[in-house]
């Protein structure tokens, strides 16, 4: 299962967000730096309204959503790449995840200490990114030094790595993350073995206070928090080629112990449909390159996780290796067509239920039934 690490400066709401996302209270959330030392881990269901539609249509006995793992990593501080604040230990935790959720504080609260003394979201992003870039630069330079002897001996793999490092080192030295460097498909494949921190896909979570969320999500920009969110969105789009989502970890922490109906009533009273955590989970799922197809019937309706670009046999193999080994065909209809037409029979009559072969690239939202023989 792929994982996303929640990172950021101390006291920006990382552990509160982790507890909210995982619907637990596993992570200690306290008003002092480094209350998280060892990372907390939790498996998170991916919210998907399509599951409910299919489940009702098939009168399924149970519904099983897709899932990903979130990891709560302790706060980084300036100097982490040099070991400050147990930096080396925390950087190693980031190295083990597949994607990064960087939480940015976009709320003001005099009772919650900020390590830099005031709220400045873009400064906070630059502090974190600088430490990750410096750590990667040190890694890349050490790797280049180790490769010199192998390159001189004519090792083709070492030569390819050295050529790639000739691109990476000056890019990192210029203060730019690896993810913004244009690379060929072969170079990207080679890069994976370097395990660089800034090569990981990253999304930013603007953490706002309970009282600010309704105005921001409705497009208002009167509050200071809205200006913070706008500055983050503009910065990460222009400098890091990624996106930001707005969440309120404070609101979500209050929903942990509520039933779904109570949670909807609570959010309605605040004037919002959701705190943003559902949007964040879905965004991270896609950031990881994951997509969903469905199977549905009386026994269960289930969301299955595949990688973007997977073909039908690979999708079948997610259910069972025998399905992939003995794949014959996949009876396929897209969710939108099935939901609009109301049944498989009507989808077949309308020509929307198709038989797809081994070369079919599965689309997000496909509803499938596999034919196989082993």
Structure description:
The chain is an alpha/beta fold and 374 residues long. Helix content is 43%, strand content 19%. The chain has helices at 14-22, 49-58, 87-95, 121-152, 156-173, 185-191, 213-217, 224-240, 249-255, 260-270, 277-287, 312-319, 321-325, 335-341, 344-349, and strands spanning 3-7, 40-45, 62-64, 67-72, 99-105, 202-207, 244-247, 290-296, 300-307, 327-334, 354-356, 366-372. A six-stranded mixed sheet has the order 2-4-1-5-6-7, sandwiched between helices. A three-stranded mixed sheet has the order 3-9-8, sandwiched between helices. A hairpin with a 3-residue loop joins strand 8 and strand 9. Helix 1 runs parallel beside helix 9 (249-255). The longest helix is centred in the middle third of the chain and has 32 residues, at 121-152. The protein is flat and about 60 Å long. Residues 27-37 have low confidence and may be disordered.
How are helices and strands ordered from N to C? EHEHEEHEHHHEHHEHHHEEHHEHHEE
Q: What's the overall geometry?
A: flat
Helix percentage: 40-55%
How far apart the termini lie comes to: 27 Å
The overall average pLDDT, rounded, is 87
| Overall strand count | 12
Q: Return the structural class.
A: alpha/beta
Indicate the proportion of strand residues: 15-25%
The total of helices stands at 15
Name a few traits of the molecule:
374 residues, six-stranded mixed sheet, 15 helices, flat
